[in-house]
Amino acid sequence: MIVFGLTLVYSDIAMQLLIYFVVAIALNFVIGYARALSIHHAALFGMGAFTYAVMAQRGWSNDLIVCGLVAALLGGLVSVILAFGSLRISGDYFIVASFAFQAFAINALFNWTSVSGGANGDYGLPTPTVLGLAVSSTFAYITAAAVLAITTLVFAIWLRRSPYGRLLRAMGDSPSALLTAGFGVLRLKVGVFGISGMLAAAAGVLYAAYLGVAQTGTFDVSLAILLVAIVVIGGTGSAVGSLLGATLIAFAQPLLSNLNLSATTTAAVQQLIFAALLVGVVAVLPRGLVQLGDVRKLVPRRGAGATEP
Amino acid sequence: MISASGRPPILQTVELSRSFGGFRAVDGVTVSVEQGDIVALIGPNGAGKTTLFNLISRLLPPTSGQLLFDGQDVTHTSPQRLARMGIGRTFQDVRLFDSMTAWDNVAVFAQSDRSATLRSGLLSPRAVRREARQVRERVEEVLEYAGLSAVASTIAGELSFAQQKKVAIARCLAQRARLMLLDEPASGLDAGEREDVAKMIEKLAGDGVTIVLVEHNMGIVREVARRAIFLAEGTVVGEDTPDRLLHSSELAEIYFGHIRSTAGVA
Amino acid sequence: MALQVTITQGLTFGSVYALSALGFAILYNTTGIFHIAYGTFAILGFMLAVTLNTSESAVPLIGSVLLAIAAVFAVTLIAFALYHRLSRRGLDRLAIFVVSLGIAIGTGALMQLGFGPAIRTFNIPSLVRVHPVAGFPFSALSWIAIGLAAGIFALVVWALRRTRWGYRVRGIASNPELSELVGTRIGLTMTGVYAVAAVCSTCAAVLLGMLSTQTSADGTNVVLLAAIAVIAAGRGTYAGGFLLALALGFVQPVFSFYISETWAASAVFGIALVLLLMRPAGLSRAAAEVGR
């Protein structure tokens, strides 16, 4: 029983870690490259979850790849619309607009009961498949999540080192100087937001498939803020940072639940710890936890002439 | 409008104006700069020099007037197109990509327009590799030219101020700018560093680059500029060689009268 | 009938939002800081007032609200002391916003621990009893909301324009560095600003708690509408944010009566989103600023 309990907990931790990691990387693209503080990634993540819920429940498809692609298309599209918004407005305007979008999307989804199941949510979702193979064991789920997470990580690292990524970093540092280099900001922002929305929504598909449930309450503003906390605590613009942040979140909950507190108390204590971490990290380590290892000095940067192939 | 030397003008502005609210920051400026020239824009603070740069690089759209580059009307061209056509500029506050290396700073300006799409990177790796090689060669050549090879892998934000200003000029070089707008290239530098920058400007002009600079340091202006345009309150009030312009008692009054009241400049 | 109900409800809720916006505006306009914890602090005020008023000790309503305002004032003071300290250490606006977010989460969590997750409301039948005026179903609470919003707005605007304090507040808003040089008075002046914010936010949250129910997790909605109105109106205007928030108060009742009750709450955020994205001033400002 205890052994069973432990394996169950560890699979939850692993799934949560891997999926939050993917969403955090997605959010980090927008915060790190476009320097737009998004509070709507929980909504994009949720859109992915409900894409799976609807497609699987209605028997359209329960294939993770098919659903993932549909969700990515949807999330990418919505995110691109917000990218156009971010061109018109920036700073505080974008933050409140993003906030408003998050509130609007989740509220609208909640009311759209044929899709979201309203307050009850969509539950008893069918087991997913990948290319015809049923994903039924815990190991299979973790493998699927790991594949998604590793693909995302490899992509993030490739992106950062590519010429395209160089332009993205430049956009974050000084959009006006990038203009004088001959690059419009529109294409780059649309690209970054698009990729970000696709990843967040794709992660949502896996999340709903694993839990077998999708409820709008899961994807509300508090999750959106938690995601921002993961990125900021780990370090904006750093994939390693997002991994640190996601690990911290994934382990905090089960560790706290060992204290035998009630569910709401556990959640509150967890939030309190994150609040303290958030304020502490921003105040002491402006570049996030990655600053502790100062990864920048350990990893030789591309462009350092000598390291070029 | 062919100038005395017979060389065609690379840049012309015709009655170029820009107002902010009711304030006319640049007010009907008509100037012409010929190819290979070094022209200094001088005048007291708030005369509209930087605004004029913003108009020429199209970071700001003009309220009225016309902008011609290479004889072509570019009044409504986007700033990124203008940059591709050959107008490079630096900023008074430098605006390097602070978190990136000097190498990467220059590389951004050497990259082709194609590299701005994700698709090209994912679908045609061979073209990407070819371009990467070209960019690498270009960047190394430019860093060598600017004497920055030793700091290529230093994060731009951690470079000395003088080196940052050189990186800014190197970036213009990397984009093969034929016209460079340099906004206070020598301010905040010591005498030796100023001399370095002056040499670099003359070297550039020798290589056929046209240069327009805003500068408060009259030593530099006298040393490098062949012509100076005096701006005050958004309009051109004089245009001559720097020496003759600065000896005009009326302009000196406008300029130095102002300088005296704003401590620490020049 | 529907028209009268819509107008009454719009005015009542609009006044509450406008009051909330006024408090957010004075902080935002004076310091430029996006104090997202504003909503959580307001709910803290409401929770304190409810607990004091309904528990055994039974402090009278006015007394409990005043104590709640004092508490909100104290936490606002502490939060801004932290923001200012951090911004002096070179943190940018985004980082300060994240710190504010952290304070909001932390305060919310502490409220969960202290007050529990239960739904709280003020139950004062005499206040919500309807006394129709020419067919408009006004209750005493409606009049209190409208009166408080209009009264406090008039008072604050008058004080900002006509008093020495207002002169100093405007000075800090236009040039914080310079005002810093003037010395100790900045602290005293800001104390007034925090007090106004505490009064507005606590009153708004208490009114909202009388009009509907609140839980200790409800902070974001209070601040969200206020922030949208104030930020969309732009820094430097008080009337703009106030009126915009008032107008947002009408969206929900109008939508409920004429279109769909279910979708009314979504409509508020949807309209706010469109408002923010379409705001033409946003475009012209972005073009005019050739910033980094």
Mean pLDDT of chain A: 85
Order of helices and strands of chain A: HHHHHEEHHHHHHHHH
Q: Structural class given helices, strands, pairing of chain C?
A: mainly alpha
Distance between the termini of chain C: 54 Å
Judging from the principal axes of the Cα atoms, what is the shape of chain C? Answer: globular
Main beta sheet of chain C: none
Distance between the termini of chain A: 55 Å
* Helix/strand order of chain C: HHHHHHHHHHHHH
Strand content of chain C: under 5%
Estimate the helix proportion of chain A, in percent: over 70%
Numbering strands along the chain, what is their spatial order in the largest sheet of chain A? Answer: 1-2
Q: Which structural class do the helices and strands of chain A define?
A: mainly alpha
Chain-averaged pLDDT of chain C: 83
Largest interface comes to:
A-C, 49 and 50 residues
Radius of gyration of chain C: 19 Å
Sheet with the most strands, sense and barrel status of chain A: 2 strands, antiparallel
CATH architecture identity of chain C: Orthogonal Bundle
Number of discrete domains of chain C: 1
Shape of chain A: globular
Poorly predicted runs of chain A are 1-8, 295-309
Summary tags:
heterotrimer; A: 309 residues; mainly alpha; two-stranded antiparallel sheet; 14 helices; globular; B: 266 residues; alpha/beta; Rossmann fold; six-stranded mixed β-sheet; four-stranded antiparallel β-sheet
Quick structural overview:
The complex is a heterotrimer of chains A (309), B (266) and C (292). With 266 residues, chain B is α/β, with parallel strands linked by helices.
Question: How does this model look, in words?
Answer:
The complex is a heterotrimer of chains A (309), B (266) and C (292). By secondary structure, chain A is mostly helical. Chain A has 14 helices and two strands; from the N terminus they run αααααββααααααααα. Chain A has a two-stranded antiparallel sheet. In chain A, helix 1 packs across helix 10. Chain B has 266 residues and is α/β, with parallel strands linked by helices. Chain B is 40% helix and 23% strand. Chain B contains ten helices and ten strands. By secondary structure, chain C is mostly helical. Chain C has one domain: ABC transporter involved in vitamin B12 uptake, BtuC (Orthogonal Bundle). Chain C contains 13 helices and no strands. Classes of the chains: A mainly alpha (309), B alpha/beta (266), C mainly alpha (292).
